[in-house]
Amino acid sequence: MKKYHIAILGVTGAVGQEMLKVLSERQLPIKKLHVFASKRSAGQTLHFENQDLTIEELTGDCFKGIDIVLSALDDEIARQFLPKAVAAGCLVIDNSSIYRLNEAVPLIVPEINAEDIKKNQGIIANPNCSTIIGLVAIAPLHQRYSIQQIVVSTYQAVSGAGIAGTHELEQQIKELENQDAPTIDAFQYQIAYNLIPQIGGFDAEGNTSEELKFQNEGRKILHHPNLNVICTCVRVPVIRSHSESITLYFDEDFSIEEVKKLLSVAPGVKLIDETDDIPYPMPLEASGQDLVYVGRIRKQKINQQTVISLWCCGDQLRKGAATNAIQIAQSYIEQN
Amino acid sequence: MKKYHIAILGVTGAVGQEMLKVLSERQLPIKKLHVFASKRSAGQTLHFENQDLTIEELTGDCFKGIDIVLSALDDEIARQFLPKAVAAGCLVIDNSSIYRLNEAVPLIVPEINAEDIKKNQGIIANPNCSTIIGLVAIAPLHQRYSIQQIVVSTYQAVSGAGIAGTHELEQQIKELENQDAPTIDAFQYQIAYNLIPQIGGFDAEGNTSEELKFQNEGRKILHHPNLNVICTCVRVPVIRSHSESITLYFDEDFSIEEVKKLLSVAPGVKLIDETDDIPYPMPLEASGQDLVYVGRIRKQKINQQTVISLWCCGDQLRKGAATNAIQIAQSYIEQN
Asked: Which domain holds residue A49?
């Protein structure tokens, strides 16, 4: 079996660190793992399985001999370096948002549209974290009944803003205990004991960039160009795992037992109900897991429509980023 | 002008304490304020304006001579004592849930349906806290355009569970810092750095009692028996003020400027937009306020419907409980 030179770009960030962890858990045919970061971190040593890996500096000509690039770079740096990786013949799996809506770039959640991987021209995009988590929960229902419309409100953890986000919540809690003014840097306002209904910048209609991703990326991943999504994204003082309150509208009627049965066998989903240790998903429980926890499933009939509500939680650093990227790599390797 | 003997029942709880504070801020024609609590607290002294008030024991025959009773008692104790207050001739304004859907009892948000007060037969019910906060934000739109359907996801503060809720969050944060296991008592699970999608008990369809209140109480308050509400209630690690992500469906079309104009002059609403110090409502900002902060207003056209999304925050101990009860008393006094 072919073995691959795999590289992680941005290995010192929250997602890069998680990629290293997920790679060590999964059996990929790795010939050699290369880890890259900015000049500042170059030369440092990382432990991976039984090896010590030296962080190399990310440069324009560091991609020779690499087969698969897992990129956890920010948008701006991704834009600068990823074309060079493609030119060097790498398959790039990109966690940034810059290529996601590019028609030449497949946007993949392996449980949903792994077959789109083969359309790649050197880059495969990893979707937005809250989009991945929500879609894993609802795609099994869409594939069976066709969703007309989605209303989603998110409850997003501070680590979605990287290591700095986690640090800021912890620091603010300590500062408030000492009756010091909380340091505000990673987020727009105090996040400790507060909620911030803004993730990303605003468009002219008042939507944040994070809110637009669910519809835009969801349409592409589900191959459903008319999907309507009404999305509100909120940062909450939780360290890890995003949660989502989702309401789905269908034209068809069906029973809630059917919904639960579909979800109980859906790939990537852990259905949580009263028969489990916990009766519903919570971010603390979903953290460190690769499955999206789905529960609180309810059905209403309103006018001619069947309305399903559910609540899901997923680790946005794992399934929402690192795990999904590595699952894409696994699917790519299997398809080759 | 007539002056009233006013009593607070349950004065030592989170809502009772807030009633005392709100009464001291507002100019009610009080002849004498009487404060009642359980035997445990009886005899203690409370400061109110320039007086020292002695807490009296709540008993079945403590209501003689009282004109208006503001009750912050729990459901069970309310059920035991409030009929005795009515029998003694008091007007009872009840913050518990036991009478809210009783047809003989008006359920009042003074900004919306103050005229229903006169139908009272001795008891007026104060609605559920998240229902009050959401309805203050949306009633001005319903009155103009008629809402067909509401989807609401709540982000509810720990003080909604009383002083014990606040204490538990603070205690858990300290315990986790010391690497001790968090004490779990007021809530079902750890709330520090977590979310709990359960407030109240479950019905057979999987709805919590808190989730059913928005539709049931909303229909009564808005005089809109066909209103459909899809509600998901979630406890978040915020000390004070409930927040709500609300999506509203209308058959009529209108501009977002019209919506903002309506909300900018709506009673009880503080419209927050990019022209304010903060660009959107946050629970930290709404805390200690009587107005419901409304912002993040967006419009979409989906099929034949106009869909408005908004985000609101309100202090659930004040407008969601104490302030609303005292506004009911004020309206009652004015109407007499």
From this structure: 4-127+321-335
- Alpha-carbon separation of residue A223 from A45, A105, A143, A216, A267 (angstroms): 43, 14, 10, 11, 18
pLDDT (tens digit, 9 = 90+) per residue, B251-296?
999 999 999 999 999 999 999 998 888 999 999 999 999 999 999 9
Is pTM beyond 0.90? Reply is yes
State how far residue A330 is from chain B, nearest Cα, in angstroms: 32
- Contacts of A324 by beta carbon, 8 Å cutoff, 6+ apart: A108, A109, A110, A126, A127, A132
Chain B residues lying within 8 Å of A153, measured CB to CB: 153, 232, 245
Interface test with B, best of A172, A230, A259 (most B CBs within 10 A): A230
Same domain for B106 and B197, yes or no, is no
From the CA atom positions of chain A, what is the Rg in Å? 20
DSSP code, position A206: S
Q: Of the candidates B245, B320, B260, B265, which has an alpha carbon nearest to the alpha carbon of residue B290?
A: B320
Count structural domains, chain A. Answer: 2
User: Are A247 and B151 an interchain contact pair (Cβ–Cβ within 8 Å)?
Assistant: yes
B139 plus B166 within the same structural domain: yes
Residue A13 sits in the same domain as residue A150 = no
| Contact between A185 and A168 (Cβ < 8 Å) | yes
B237/B261 same-domain check: yes
Residue range A312-325, pLDDT digits in tens? 999 999 999 999 99
Q: Please indicate whether, in this complex, the C-beta atoms of A236 and B239 are within 8 angstroms of each other.
A: no
> Are residues A218 and A276 located together in one domain of the fold?
yes
Q: Mind telling me how many Å the CA of A214 is from chain B's nearest CA?
A: 15
Would you tell me how many other CB atoms lie within 10 Å of the CB of residue B23?
21
Indicate which CATH number applies to the domain containing A8.
Answer: 3.40.50.720
B325 in the same domain as B312: no
